[in-house]
Prior knowledge:
Blueprint: H1 3-7, H2 11-19, H3 25-43, E1 46-49, H4 51-66, E2 78-82, H5 109-116, E3 120-125, H6 159-167, E4 172-177, H7 183-189, E5 192-195, E6 215-220, H8 223-233, E7 263-266, H9 279-294, E8 298-301, H10 307-332, H11 339-348, H12 353-376, E9 379-383, H13 399-402, H14 409-413, E10 417-424, E11 430-436, H15 442-455
Parallel strand pairs: 2-3, 2-4, 7-8, 7-9
Antiparallel strand pairs: 1-3, 4-6, 5-6, 5-10, 9-11, 10-11
Helix pairs in contact: 3-4, 6-7, 8-15, 10-11, 10-12
Amino acid sequence: MSGDNLCRLTIQEAAPMLQRREISPVELTEAFLARIEELNQTLAAYVCVTSDLARTQAKQAEQEIGNGQYRGPMHGVPIGLKDIYATKGIATTASSHLHVNRIPDADAEATARLAAAGAVLLGKLTTHEFAFGGPSWDLPTPPARNPWNPDHFTGGSSSGSGAAAAAGLAMGTLGSDTAGSIRMPAFFCGIAGLKPTYGRVSRRGVTPLAFSLDHCGPMTWSVADCALMMNAIAGYDPKDPASANLPVPDHAATLDDGVKGKRIGLIKHFYDGDIQAAEPIKLAMAAAAKTFESLGAHVEEVTLPSLRDFHACNFVIMLAEAYAIHQASITKTPEKYGEILRDRMMLASFITGYDYVQATRMRTSLKAAVDTALSKYDFLLTAGGPTPAPKLEQMPKFYVFENPLLTSPFNVSGHPVLSVCNGFSDAKLPVGMQIVGRPFDEAGVLAAGQAFEQATPFRNERPMMQ
């Protein structure tokens, strides 16, 4: 199998081949390292490639599998981590000059769990500065570019994670999501991205943006691969105060359960009412609803509070909590921050304790509205963004404030959300949708996404990167 073909394998496809020793972790890792060498100068997905470590881990995985010590579907699988996940002995910079020399002395919990599952670390992936300030050109490394068209935006802040998963520069990646930072790159890059329930995946060792809104989760080419990564990273961590001490199911075991008999509430007013999404988005959502109906689900419109209310609540809380994290260092050394993050933090400094308390009170009622809807429906469905990926150079400094994000409601509520590709624009840029589930029903959300992927042709199209 050629190197490019190896890099187009999904984790679900590669895992049994690795277990049967039809391909080796060394062979697979070398193929990805070669592809990164070829394409990263264009895409800027990686800020650091850990070639030596990857080769060492791949050789260890090969020996273990050969000796019958197979650890599971992630064993020997090459992955990348957003550069806010702590990696022992490897720079974790959050794409900021403030942390450019930061070398953690311990792994993040999610990093450690992937290592325990036998994954091979290819390197650290580009992020907006501290998962918020970007896309920026005044950071230690340039912003990532969209594999479908490098002139276009990847979404943020898990920008390198989205680009790498789409371009075949890693079999799976981890991102973080505070207002949509897993789901926006998934939308713009045409991949699957899961924001788990708040507390399902440990955030310990992950550079925080907003303590009560941050989520960690997988970004992959397919829904099934998200399920396999979730099996490796999900679970209780007593050292993360927000971690949920609940049983974790086998997310892959129920992937083929389908949606027959399920009730789905379509939140149409989020993208066709509260804001007006572009026509390709509306058409893709209408087609997706029909696809779910053809699979035996019942789809009907449901009304939630205004998207603008959710977004305002999310951003007041996020800015206040982010400023609490950065106030001391940005006051002392503002020159070490990029312009975009520095100016956004200036806005955050005007939020009062009154504003924060009122937003947290509002959050309770907004979350209750989502819970009420999900007491009537198995899943909720809405668009992932208002337009296909815009031009990278045209992204304004305050774009996240100018229009409400379709992703932000579910950081406010904490529910699990899966982003999946549901079409393409005339310019062959992907678009996507969000499938929202009940708390801790990641398995159900993934099964719904799997049913949609299996019924549609979108996973067969890849970016034409040479």
